[in-house]
Amino acid sequence: MTSSPRSVVRFLGPWCVGLLMLTAFPAVASLVLSMTESSNSLKTEASSWVGVEHYRNAVEFNLDYEPKSADPIAWRLLGGKPIDEDLFRSLVNSITYAQLSVPISLISALAVALLLNRSSPGMRFFRGFVYLPHLLGGVATIVIWSWLFNPQFGWINQFIRLVYRVLDPLVQIIDARGTSQWMTPDWLYSPSWCMPALLLMSAWTMGGAMLIFLAALRGIPKTLYDAAHLDGASARRSFFHITWPQLTPAMLFNMLVGTVFAMQAFAEPYLLANRKQDDGLLLFVLQLYRVAFEPPYKLNYACAMAWIFVVILAVMVVPIFWTARRWVFEPARADA
Amino acid sequence: MNERRSIGKTTSLYVALVCVSALMLLPVVWAAVSSLKPLDEVYQFPPSFSVSTPQWSNYHEAVTRLPVLRFLMNSLLITGASVVGAVLTSSMAGYALARMRFRGRRLCFALVILSMLIPAQALLVPRFLLYDTLGWVNTYKPLIVPAWLGGGAFNIFLFRQFFRSIPFAYNDAACLDGATDWQTYWHIILPIAKPATVTAAMLSFVFNWQDFMDPLIYLSDFQTYPISLGLRMHQSMAGTWANLLMATSLIALVPIVIVFLVSERQLMRGLDVVSGSSKDEM
Prior knowledge:
Chain A is mostly helical. Chain A has a single domain, classed as Orthogonal Bundle (MetI-like fold), CATH 1.10.3720. Chain A has helices spanning 5-33, 53-59, 73-78, 85-116, 123-136, 139-148, 155-174, 194-204, 207-218, 222-230, 235-263, 267-272, 284-293, 299-327; strands at residues 36-38, 47-49, 61-62, 81-82.
């Protein structure tokens, strides 16, 4: 039975309006804005067409510049200096963050899901403990972490100092000074340690990915393991030949969601960035926010930045899709 | 021998799980301990792992130093209004995509999935200009109205997957009895889909409660700030009042923990259905 158009409109109406008004129209507007320049940035009336100028300014390199050894590696590789250094920096940071945080989170999520995938008592309790941080991740926990990472008064460095103290007698055998000269990281107050701090924070919220893995693990038919066991397969072989292939769809999903999510991080860098980091936490969305909503409000340029970001995100995500056919296991479908 | 081995295995499993849970709890315990310390103990080197005398008055001071209760009420208002809209409109869209037959249904579903992949930040500027033109800046409208217009692609997906797992005989029976689409949805299918409703409500609650970027862009009067922005204000004083900041942070987390505890059973069922079925969609 086909539903009447009137009731279809009634059910899909709100979503349709939202799609047109909040996604389709802004997308077109953003494209137009990115190719114009307004004299008064908040009023778009008096604007002139500039074509791809904003895009060129965003990606262009000053090739006359001779990179020095102190400059970022990327500059030396590309043999020049980006015109918009901050944008370049923020993109490199965001891509680095995504490429590191996704594997770290997914490996820990998978390890915990494998631990939790049994019917022993208390599993529901532990599952709640691991999942809850995923929901708690926000301004409040970012603030808590920043204080936890405090080099002087935070517990993390205090733990490290305790470990040093335990190791001290052992180290003295080799080096008379022991661990007394060993440093503790400055975390959020250091250009090289701020990114590891952010990665630790992101690993803490891996509960969402863990839950997806757990659901996939529970969906694996038990008979597969029984058959493997009868054939004398070792636990390792069962893992690589049964568990892993059956997990690959969940892996694909988590990789896609994780990458998109990591590239969109904003509250973390906004709240944690400080001068001592030397822009180590300047992620792309923070840079976008600064360009658009802080003086001199370069809204048109920000639109061009956003489109470059979309292209980069697509370049990161599309290969995952393309290669998916090779490594994602497709079960023979019951209804096919 | 076999039994001894399995006892050893079980013990190591629990030891590992307790360690993982302890790591997960670490920031919360840290915040709780710090929030109860007197100020001189907070800035004491080396930091202690416990409190000598818990100073409960810190919590009172934390909520009075800044209008934290006001912030919480604002958050509750924004979040409540958004959750209702998100659950209602996303379940309607999900229902149409799962249980109604019409031309263009596959296209609509493809658009839902596609819109899930567009990063919201890409549309930051045009959306701001749109709301500015409508005169919505400095009101709650930019934070609430989007929830009433589809309620998020993920929620639509969740409802659609859940609705599809309900036998179609319900619709046929309702149709024979002369029920309209709306009556079937409202009185029959939606009540059956309680795990999906609870999951969508829970996830939108958390999403809106934690949202930081939209309030930051659209609100400038601090009397209207939700708790996420209020905490940000508080953070600028972190150097001086770390114990109060930790107390406020914990207060901001309480509603999420409560909502999680209340909905945990349904939430796990809801997420199970979605992640189980997402397999054959990908």
